[in-house]
Specification:
This protein has 4 helices and no strands. With 85 residues, the protein is mainly α. Helix 1 crosses helix 3.
C-alpha cells in the first residue's frame, strides 16, 4: 500500500467515523434548562465540544486504520478466506 493510498483510506475512515462521534454528548438547551436564542433550532447543542470530538475521532480512526493496515500487511482476512470468490 502506497503512501497516497494509505492517506486516502485514512481520510475516508476519518470522515465516516466523524459522523459516528458527533452525536455523543450532545445536550440541547431544553435538556440543560437554558433559554433558547430566538431562531435557534430545538436540536442545537448548547456546547458542541467540537475540538474534543475531533480528537476522539482522530484517535478512533487511527485505531481502525491501524487494524486495517495490519490486516493488509499480515493478510489475516482476505477475499479467498471469506468465500466470496
Amino acid at each position: 500500500m502506497g503512501l497516497g493510498s494509505a492517506l486516502a483510506i485514512y481520510l475516508l475512515i476519518w470522515t465516516v467515523t466523524l459522523f459516528l462521534v458527533l452525536p455523543f454528548g450532545v445536550r440541547t438547551a431544553e435538556e440543560e434548562g437554558e433559554d433558547q436564542i430566538p431562531g435557534q433550532a430545538d436540536s442545537a447543542p448548547v456546547r458542541p465540544l467540537i475540538f474534543k470530538k475531533l480528537l476522539w475521532n482522530t484517535l478512533l480512526s487511527a485505531a481502525i486504520f491501524a487494524l486495517l493496515y495490519a490486516n493488509f500487511h499480515f493478510g489475516w482476512v482476505d477475499i479467498e478466506r471469506l468465500g466470496f470468490f
